[in-house]
C-alpha cells in the first residue's frame, strides 16, 4: 500500500505565500496583528505600492496611511476573532489621485498550531459605480426633459381647445358649431389622457384610476345635469402598457361621446352610461353601454367616431360588437388570448 505524507507546516505556509504573490486578484495576507505577510503584484500595481516594501507593514500604514480606516480595522479585528465576516463589503478609499470604490472580502485561515491568518481580496469597482452614477444622471435629465415636454403638450392642448370653443361660439351655422364642439370634446379628452399618463410612473398603467379620471373629465365637460345623466365606470385591477392604454382611452372617449350625443335625444330622468373593463390572462373585454333610445337605424351612415373605434380596435387585434341592450345599446371590444401552436 502506498502512503502519502502531508506537507510540513513551513511548506504549506510557503505555498500559500507563493499563491498570494502570483494571484491575478489583488490580495493581502495578514497576520493576527494586521501586518502584511504577503501581497500580490496586482495589489501593489493597483495602489502604487512597491512589493519589496509592503511586507512587514501594518495595513493601516500602507499608501501613506490611506488604509488607516477605523471601520475597516474594526471589521478585520472582528473577523480574526470569528465574530464577524467581511463579505462583499464596499469601502470608499480616499486617495490624493481620486477616491476609489472597493469591494472587500476576507477569509480566515487557520494554520497548524496557533497561527491565524487573514486573506483579504480587493476589487476596484470605481468604473462601475461611475457608470451607474452617469446612467442615473442621464435618466434624471431625461425625466426632466420629459416633464417639460408633457407640460408644453398640455398647454398646447388647452390652447387648441380654447380656440375651438371660441370658434364654436362665433359661427352661425349649427352644423359647423356641432363639428367644432365635437372637436373640442375630443381635444379635451386627449388632454385628459395625456394628464393621466403624465402622472403615471414609468411602466404599466393602472386602468381603474385611468378610466375613472377619463369618465369624470368627459362628464364634467359634456353633462349639464349630473343628477339626470351619469357615467359609471366598472373596472377591475388590470394594468397595461402606456401605448395600449392610450388606444383604450381613445375608444372609451369616442363611445361615451357618441352615447351622450345620440342615446339621449330628449331630457331623461335617469340616464346612465356604463364603462366596463375586465381581463383574463392575455384576453380582455372593454364595454360601453347606455340605457338610451337603442341602436341606430340600419341605414344610418357611420360617423367619424365609429371609424376611429374600428381602427383602434383593429390595431389592438380586438373585435367590435354592437348589440341591443333593451333598453339602450352595448358596444363590446373583445381581445381574445391567442392560442399557442400546441393547443387543439
Shape call: elongated
Percentage of residues in strands: 15-25%
CATH class of the largest domain: Alpha Beta
Which spans of ≥5 residues are poorly predicted at pLDDT below 50?
A: 1-9
What is the CATH superfamily label of the largest domain? Histidine kinase-like ATPase, C-terminal domain
Notes on the protein architecture:
The chain starts with 8 loop residues before the first helix and ends in a 9-residue tail after the last strand. It has three domains: 107 residues, Beta-Lactamase (2-Layer Sandwich), CATH 3.30.450.20; 77 residues; 140 residues, Histidine kinase-like ATPase, C-terminal domain (Heat Shock Protein 90, 2-Layer Sandwich). The N terminus is likely disordered. Helix 5 packs antiparallel against helix 6, helix 6 packs antiparallel against helix 7 and helix 6 packs antiparallel against helix 8. Helix content is 45%, strand content 22%. It is elongated, with a radius of gyration of 36 Å. The protein is of the alpha+beta class. A five-stranded antiparallel β-sheet has the order 2-1-5-4-3. The protein has a five-stranded mixed β-sheet with strand order 7-9-10-12-11, with helices on one face. Strands 6-8 form a two-stranded antiparallel ribbon. Strand 1 and strand 2 form a beta hairpin.
Amino acid at each position: 500500500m502506498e502512503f502519502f505524507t502531508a506537507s510540513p507546516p513551513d511548506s504549506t505556509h510557503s505555498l500559500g505565500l507563493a499563491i498570494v504573490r502570483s494571484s491575478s486578484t489583488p490580495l493581502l495576507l495578514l497576520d493576527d496583528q494586521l501586518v502584511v505577510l504577503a501581497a500580490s503584484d496586482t495589489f501593489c500595481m493597483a495602489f502604487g505600492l512597491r512589493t519589496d516594501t509592503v511586507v512587514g507593514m501594518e495595513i493601516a500604514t500602507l499608501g501613506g496611511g490611506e488604509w488607516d480606516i477605523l471601520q475597516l480595522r474594526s471589521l478585520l479585528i472582528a473577523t480574526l476573532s470569528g465574530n464577524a465576516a467581511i463579505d462583499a463589503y464596499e469601502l470608499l478609499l480616499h486617495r490624493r489621485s481620486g477616491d476609489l470604490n472597493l469591494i472587500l472580502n476576507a477569509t480566515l485561515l487557520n494554520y497548524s498550531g496557533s497561527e491565524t491568518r487573514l486573506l483579504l481580496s480587493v476589487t476596484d469597482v470605481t468604473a462601475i459605480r461611475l457608470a451607474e452614477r452617469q446612467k442615473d444622471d442621464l435618466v434624471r435629465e431625461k425625466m426632466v426633459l420629459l416633464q417639460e415636454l408633457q407640460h408644453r403638450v398640455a398647454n398646447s392642448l388647452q390652447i387648441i381647445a380654447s380656440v375651438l370653443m371660441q370658434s364654436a361660439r362665433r359661427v352661425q351655422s349649427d352644423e359647423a358649431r356641432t363639428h367644432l364642439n365635437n372637436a373640442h370634446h375630443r381635444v379635451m379628452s386627449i388632454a385628459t389622457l395625456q394628464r393621466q399618463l403624465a402622472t403615471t410612473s414609468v411602466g404599466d398603467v393602472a386602468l381603474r384610476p385611468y378610466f375613472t379620471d377619463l369618465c369624470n373629465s368627459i362628464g364634467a365637460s359634456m353633462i349639464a345635469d349630473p343628477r339626470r345623466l351619469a357615467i359609471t365606470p366598472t373596472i377591475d385591477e388590470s394594468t397595461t402598457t402606456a401605448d395600449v392604454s392610450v388606444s383604450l382611452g381613445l375608444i372609451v372617449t369616442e363611445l361615451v361621446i357618441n352615447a351622450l350625443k345620440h342615446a339621449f335625444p330628449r331630457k331623461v330622468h335617469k340616464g346612465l352610461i356604463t364603462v366596463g373593463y375586465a381581463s383574463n390572462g392575455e384576453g380582455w373585454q372593454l364595454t360601453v353601454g347606455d340605457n338610451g333610445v337603442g341602436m341606430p337605424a340600419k341605414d344610418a351612415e357611420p360617423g367619424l367616431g365609429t371609424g376611429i373605434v374600428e381602427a383602434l380596435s383593429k390595431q389592438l387585434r380586438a373585435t367590435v360588437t354592437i348589440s341591443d341592450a333593451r333598453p339602450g345599446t352595448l358596444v363590446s371590444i373583445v381581445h381574445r388570448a391567442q392560442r399557442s401552436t400546441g393547443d387543439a
